[in-house]
Amino acid sequence: MTDSRAGGGIKGVVSSGTAAEVLISASEIAGRVEGLGTELRELYADSPEPPVLIGVLKGSTLFLADLVRAVGIDAEVDFMAISSYSASSGQSGVVRIVKDLEGDIAGRDVLLVEDIVDTGLTLTYLRRSLGEREPRSLRTVALLDKAARRIVPVPVEFRGFEIPDVFVVGYGLDFMGRYRNVPDLYAVRDLARLANDPTLLVEPFFGLDGPPRA
Ligand code: PRP
Predict the structure, then answer these.
(1) Which pLDDT tens digit goes with each residue over 10-67?
(2) Using a 6 Å cutoff on CB, does residue 142 contact ligand 1?
(3) What is the pLDDT of residues 105-115, one digit of tens each?
(4) Which protein residue's CA is at the shortest distance from atom 17 of ligand 1?
(5) Which of 25, 77, 78, 115 is the most interior residue, by most CB within 10 Å?
(6) Active-site residue, 118 included
(7) Of the ranges 46-60, 127-141, 197-211, which one carries the lowest mean pLDDT score?
(8) CATH of the domain spanning 4-209, picked from 3.10.129.10, 2.60.40.1470, 3.20.20.360, 3.40.50.2020
(9) Does residue 124 have its Cβ closer than 6 Å to ligand 1?
C-alpha cells in the first residue's frame, strides 16, 4: 500500500504494536468518494431543483465537503445536529434535534449524508423526521456501514464501505472530540487503552507538537 499520509500532514505512521492501524487509506476514501459522486451526479441530473445534501454534525463534515465537490452539480448544503443517546442507559433510540435545518425541504430531492451507520437508530429517527417534511425524494449516503451492529433495519441507498465491528477514528470520526482531522480512517486496536488515555494517538498521528500526554 502506498503511504498516502505523506502529503496529509500526518507525521507518524501508526504501526503494529501501537493502538491503531489504518483500516481505509485517504486515497482509498478519495477514490470511493469520486465513485459515489459520479453515481449521485447521474441520479440528480434531471432534478427540477438542486438537491439538498444534509450533513449530520459533526462526523459527516469531512465526507460531505469532499462528496459535494465530487457530485459536481448545482447543489445545496444544510446541517442538522442531534443529541447522542446512550445504549447502556436504556435510552436506545432516544434522539433529539439540537440544531435543525435552516431551509425548507418540501418538494426537494434530499440526500442525508452520514459518516457511519451503526445500530441504525439515529438514521431511523432522522429519516422519519425528514420524511414528515414531504421532500420530493429522501435517500441516505453513508461513508461507512457497520452492518453487523444493526439493531433497526433502515435503508442506506449509497454506502462507501462496509466495515467490521471495530472502533474507528479519522476522516471526521472522533474519540472524545479528537482525531477527526486525521486523513486516513484508523481502526482502534485497543479501545480500553485509548479510553484510559484519550491523547494516546496524538503523538503517533501528529508528532511531538501535540498536547502533552497525561
Ligand atoms: C455517529 C454517526 C451517526 C451515529 C450512528 O454520531 O455520525 O450519527 O453515530 O450511530 P447509530 O447508527 O448507532 O445510531 P456520533 O453520536 O458519534 O456524533 P458525532 O458525529 O458528532 O461524532
Answers:
(1) 444 455 457 899 999 999 999 999 999 999 999 999 999 999 999 999 999 999 999 9
(2) no
(3) 999 999 999 99
(4) 59
(5) 115
(6) yes
(7) 197-211
(8) 3.40.50.2020
(9) no
Q: Which of 192, 193, 188 is nearest to 164 (CA)?
A: 188
- Check if 145 has its Cβ closer than 6 Å to any atom of ligand 1: no
Task: Residue 119: name the closest of 87, 77, 163 by CA.
Answer: 87
Give the Cα-Cα-Cα angle 88, 92, 96 (nearest 5 degrees): 120
Euclidean distance between CA atoms 169 and 158, whole angstroms: 21
How far apart are the CA of 212 and the centre of ligand 1, in A? Answer: 28
Per the residue annotation, which of 66, 109, 115, 118 is the catalytic one?
A: 118
Q: From the CA of 46, how far away is ligand 1's center (Å)?
A: 32
Burial 168-194 (b: 16+ CB within 10 A, else e): bbbbbbbbeebbbebbbbbbbbeeeeb
Give the residue ranges of DSSP H helices in 23-111. Answer: 26-43, 61-71
- The owner of cell 489504518 is 22
Whole-number Å distance, alpha carbon 123 to ligand 1 midpoint, is 9
Residue 68 to residues 38, 65, 159, 185: CA-CA distances in angstroms? 11, 6, 15, 20
Distance 79 CA to ligand 1 centre (A): 14
d(CA 160, CA 143): 4
Question: Across the strands, what pairs with 49?
Answer: none
pTM for this entry: 0.88
